[in-house]
């Protein structure tokens, strides 16, 4: 669905490259978690995918077309929810009337359903909302646009506690085999159970690009105070129970992914972790 080929980008000629010879493919029908340390270029990558920035080198092909051409066919089929944004001081009804025409598959019924999920009225004035409420409204609009590609930058930042689980329900209810959702975040606990795929980047390299099914087939995630197990672990983080451990999955065990632990392991030992998938 989306091919990023040999992409390089910097903000001005004298600045260091943010992304360097970077390649990645995204397939439809999945929710991707895009993870990386602060400043690795996740937001920049989402802006490049949306055609808002121009690569210095390389290309991004979405459904056979270069996103940088910003063709109507491309723009009406992808949506970016940035980490920070402003909404105009309009009623929601007016906002929908003015903007939904750019998205041929926009569904007012879906929009109402998503607002209900966030316990928001449809009769709103966008100018009077808090940042968290604006985020809920904009994410509802983004999903109701029913684009094949939905990019979300730190979507759970600023959401209240119920808002985080409502967000998970929102994505689950708006997901289909035709859609691909990319969620860039540091709030891994907000999204770990909803992901199909994990991508960890460091700017020039994709350190990990694996399905959650393959990750859980390859590793066991365990809490333990056993010293023996710590010795066998590929990576360990101190926890309340002793240690959170990531171990090779020799016995075909099924455990739930621990994204924080996986992220730490991949940053500390990228080659060792990558080699485990080919073992
Ligand atoms: N408008 C800009 N002008 C110049 N440099 C920028 C601009 N936006 C981002 N950068 C730089 O580009 C690099 C990547 O920034 P980006 O926001 O894409 O990273 P990120 O992975 O999303 O970070 P975070 O996780 O902290 O949100 C950083 O070094 C940042 O300082």
TrEMBL record:
GO MF terms held by the record: ATP binding
Domain of life: Bacteria
Alphabetized CDD domains for the sequence: ABC_DR_subfamily_A
Keyword Zinc: no
SMART domains: AAA
PROSITE patterns registered for this protein in UniProt: ABC_TRANSPORTER_2
Signal sequence segment: none
Keywords, ordered alphabetically: ATP-binding, Nucleotide-binding, Transport
Domain (ABC transporter): residue spans on this chain: 2-228
Keyword set includes Cell inner membrane: no
Protein name, per record: ABC transporter ATP-binding protein
Organism: Bacteroides gallinaceum
